[in-house]
Amino acid sequence: MIKYNEYYAKIKVHKDTLGEEESKWSFMIELREKQDLVKKLKIMKEELRQDLQNPEGNRMKQVQEDITKLKDKITTTKESIIEKTCFLEEENKTHEKLRKEIEVQNKRYGAILKRLHCQLNKLQSNRKQWQWNIQQLEKTAAELRKCIAMKD
After folding, report:
1. Which of 45, 59, 100, 132 could form an SS bridge with 51, CB 3.0 to 4.6 Å?
2. What are the protein's UniProt keywords (predicted)?
3. What is the chain's alpha carbon radius of gyration, rounded to the nearest angstrom?
4. Is 99 in contact with 93 (CB distance < 8 Å)?
5. Mean pLDDT of all residues in the chain?
6. Dist CA 144 CA 58 (whole Å)
7. Highest mean pLDDT, choosing among 48-52, 64-68, 110-114
8. Any alpha helices (H) in 24-151, and if so which ranges?
């Protein structure tokens, strides 16, 4: 029994020193980290399973709150889209009215411009006529002066 205990103690010391050496290896450190991660994930899985089975669980409440928040956001964005489309339609109607008014004003001013051109042409032709009449009167006056000068 003593030999067995000595052998057992010797093997235990050997295992401990070997364990210490293995613990320094990088892949063993990584293995331990992954084992810890697996333990944490198992714990989280069990908590989630319990939350899902319980309709009053924290996760269910949180998910329901998230769903209501998303629904609220969707309704607010829909309302803002509707408001903006109405505003754009009103703006388009206003622009169309302004375009029509501009067309009417352009036609009106075009007609005024034509009338002014006609008046200008008429005045120019009257001026030419008066100049021609003045020239004719000057010719007649010159002829009459010649006649008077001859009689005298």
Report:
1. 59
2. Coiled coil
3. 55
4. no
5. 91
6. 126
7. 110-114
8. 26-53, 58-151
Q: How far is CA 79 from the centre of its chain?
A: 17
Stated length of the chain: 152
The ranges assigned to domains in the chain are: 1-53
Give the distance from CA 51 to its chain's centroid: 42
DSSP state of 118: H
Other CB atoms within 10 A of residue 63 CB: 13
69: its two tokens:
């928040």
Q: What is the pLDDT of residue 137?
A: 97
Residue 58 CA from chain centroid, whole number: 38
Instruction: Give, in degrees to the nearest 5, the angle at Cα 83 between 81 and 86.
Output: 110
52 vs 66: CA distance, rounded Å: 16
pLDDT tens per residue, range 88-109? 999 999 999 999 999 999 999 9
- Rounded Cα–Cα distance for residues 143 and 137 (Å): 10
Give per-residue burial for 21-57: e unless 16+ CB within 10 Å, then b.
eeeeeeeeeeeeeeeeeeeeeeeeeeeeeebeeeeeb
Residue 31 and residue 38 in contact, taking contact as beta carbons nearer than 8 Å: no
